[in-house]
Amino acid sequence: MRAAVLHEIGQDKLEVLDDVEAVGFGPGKVRIRIRATGLCHSDLSAMNGVLPQPAPFIPGHEGAGEVVDVGDGVTGLKAGDRVLVCWLPACGACPSCRHGQTHLCLAGFMNAGTPNFKRPGGDVFGFAGTGTFTEEVVVGAGCAVPIPDDVPFEIAALIGCGVTTGLGAAINTAQVEAGSSVAVIGCGGVGISAVQGARVQGAAQIVAVDPVASRREAALRFGATEAVSPDEFADARQRITAGEGFDYVFEVVGKSATARTAYENTRRGGTLCIVGAGALDDHFQVNMFELFFDEKRILPSMYGGGDVLRSYGRAVELWRAGRIDLESMITHRVRLDGINDALDQMRTGTSLRTCVEL
Question: What is the pTM assigned to this prediction?
Answer without folding.
Answer: 0.95
